[in-house]
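Ticket closed. Logging final result for FMN-binding protein.
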Amino acid sequence: MASNKDSKQVSTIKAGKSGSAGVKSATVAAVGLIAATTLLAGCGSKDAIPADGAYQGNSGESMAAPSSSASAGGTSSAGGAGNDAKAHDTGKYRDGTYNVDNQPDSSGKDTIDVTVKVAQGDITGVTVVGHTSNDISKKHQAAFIEAIPGVVVGKPLKGLKVDKVAGASWTTQAFNDALANARTQASVQ
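Final structure:
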């Protein structure tokens, strides 16, 4: 499997070591290098397919697309697993109330339900209900839930992304994902 170039490198390494222990360790190192090179040869292929997981990176899109569009009353609901390939964020939003239920945080253990009220492209109200797995998460979510209206109410929905609120980084990320989902729901297609 080794090319002539690899064989020459192995010979050079062997000649530089003295004794059988040096030859063995140099040979093992050379074989390891050849094996690693062979295994890595397929990495980075142009045909590689990215992972399909909920936390594969932040592409700026929500992890869950809405499962239904807004009704005539302007209210829509989407669970964490909905998927509508046609809907996308257009930057123009219908007035209404948009629900995103069971939005997971990055721990994968806790979720939040978010209701966003939109009028003339601005957030006029927000409600967050937390679902936690332990007391520490409950404390962080409670602090987030108390602080978030003061951070987002009165702000434009378009492009809104909040930084860590009340020390709750995982809940903040879940909230940002829920906002992206709400933007998709509210978008005029």
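Confidence is low (pLDDT under 50) at residues 2-18, 44-84. No further action required.
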